[in-house]
Amino acid sequence: MKQSKEFLLHKEIAVETVGNGVTRQIFGYNSQILLAKITFEKGSIGDVHQHPHVQTSYIESGKFEVMINNSKQILEKGDGFFVPGDTDHGVVCLEAGVIIDTFTPAREDFLK
Amino acid sequence: MKQSKEFLLHKEIAVETVGNGVTRQIFGYNSQILLAKITFEKGSIGDVHQHPHVQTSYIESGKFEVMINNSKQILEKGDGFFVPGDTDHGVVCLEAGVIIDTFTPAREDFLK
User: Model pTM greater than 0.95?
Assistant: First the structure.
């Protein structure tokens, strides 16, 4: 797998439509790690899903109901969450905002 | 190595003094990945250093001169950078702000 550039200017990064009020930008990565910025409109949903990748996330802005392994928590700007591999998780956006998601290994499905 | 809690409320996370205008909070981690929020006062410096961990970072706020492997770039809110393992890097804070740093594997030295 290739590797990202070292300097990543937000104006140069494609904004991908994930759908239903959610967009994504891919920041720095190689095969071992990948950082993605996910932007949510109010009311949009990150469907419950799981993947073998370990995920650590930071709420840049907004307010979300985050579900991990059947536990729910309201998280706001400045909070974070951690998702072990192969663990159900999802979010509901209560106030428009941005989540920084980082994965190990890289989400190769995000790079296609 | 242990693993962080799944929900990480910023009010509950210790703010560690790194020194010289820099503080750090540790968010979600296990042995494979670790996310840290680093807050810089204007004029503070993240000294040039290197580590075997691969790093992908996101500028939450502020303005920084970022050096990676002898290349320099001014980065602002919304930009990012990627540091391969064993590669010199450092930052100079031009306007007070926050960088979200994520590492693989975890920075065990941050957990002591």
Answer: yes
